[in-house]
Amino acid sequence: MSETPSVLVIGASAIDTKGVASNTIEPGVMNPGRVRVHRGGVGRNIAENLSRLGIHARLISAVGDDISGESILSYAEEAGIDIEHVLVAEDTNTGAYIAVYDEFGRIYVAMYHMSIMNLITPRYLYDRRRLFSEASLVVIDANLPSRTIDMVFKLAKQYDVPVCADPTSNALAPKLKPRLSELYMVTPDMGEAEVLTGIKIVERMDAMEAAKKLITLGVDIAIVTQSEKGVCYATQEVAGHMPAIDTEVTDLTGAGDAMTAAVVYGLQEGFDVDEAIKLGISAGSLAIQCRETVCPDLNLELLYDNLRA
């Protein structure tokens, strides 16, 4: 075991391109707006948030041997992420995510290209099984191939380390369904929770029902995020709802990743689930105030100040 336990994050790294329309979007023609490029990827985002909160975050991911990959690795290192086990692949493009928002900041369409994550194979993880033995917690996103997810749980069981998961998208969430009974925590949004539970979520009570169902399916901590409506959560002992912090929205990308990371931080520090979720809500609020996918100024003082504001 290492002297300082780490959180092992296994998931995507990508370049995020985000466009916000200035006026009503007209399909099929050029639309005026603001376009920005940032470093992203769910796993990478979670690792950066954790590092900025003072957690030793190790990242297993893959990037191409290209300018995008170099940018991601350089920035990750500056942010304090342990990138020793990020695979750099030749003749393969770094992952990419593109999102277009309407003039009100609502997502209009999004696309992702994460095929590079197929290079994170079961063997790649097995060869690095020592990292599981040294981890206090494992966090994954659903960009991983299904067979690789299977290996995550095999190694986690072998080394008795809990696994948290971000379902990532409605399309990818089904990969987690066979493993719900082995998950310590899962943090779906409403659409992803519908996929995992089969419950149509319209109102708060629907989200609460979905969180409780995830517990009956074997998850220890279930957190269903509802954007500006807050979160519903459940464990075997408690269930509840917490409102969102009233926040001026600059960019919604990365809010869920920030929340997952801050909840993990709270749990690692021994906080009760409800206190950890408060930190998660604060982190999500800070994330949507930033133009970057991960708030570069994030730290514990800012996290607590935002709760008190």
Question: Can you characterise this structure?
Answer:
The chain is of the alpha/beta class and 309 residues long. It has a domain at 6-13 and 41-91 and 115-161 and 245-308: Ribokinase (UDP-N-acetylmuramoyl-L-alanine:D-glutamate ligase). Helix content is 34%, strand content 23%. It contains 10 helices and 14 strands. It has helices spanning 42-52, 67-78, 122-126, 130-133, 146-158, 190-197, 204-216, 255-268, 273-288, 300-308, and strands at residues 6-10, 14-21, 33-40, 57-60, 62-64, 87-89, 95-101, 107-113, 135-141, 163-166, 185-186, 221-225, 231-234, 239-242. The chain has an 8-stranded mixed beta sheet, with helices on both faces. A 4-stranded mixed beta sheet has the order 3-2-7-8. Helix 5 (146-158) links the parallel strand 9 (135-141) and strand 10 (163-166). Helix 6 packs across helix 7 and helix 9 (273-288) crosses helix 10 (300-308). The longest helix is centred in the C-terminal third of the chain and has 16 residues, at 273-288. It is globular and about 55 Å long.
Number of helices: 10
What kind of sheet is the major sheet? 8 strands, mixed
CATH topology of the domain at 6-13 and 41-91 and 115-161 and 245-308, anyone?
Answer: UDP-N-acetylmuramoyl-L-alanine:D-glutamate ligase
| End-to-end CA span | 40 Å
How many strands in all?
14
Task: Please name the defining characteristics of this protein.
14 strands, 309 residues, 10 helices, four-stranded mixed β-sheet, eight-stranded mixed β-sheet, alpha/beta, UDP-N-acetylmuramoyl-L-alanine:D-glutamate ligase
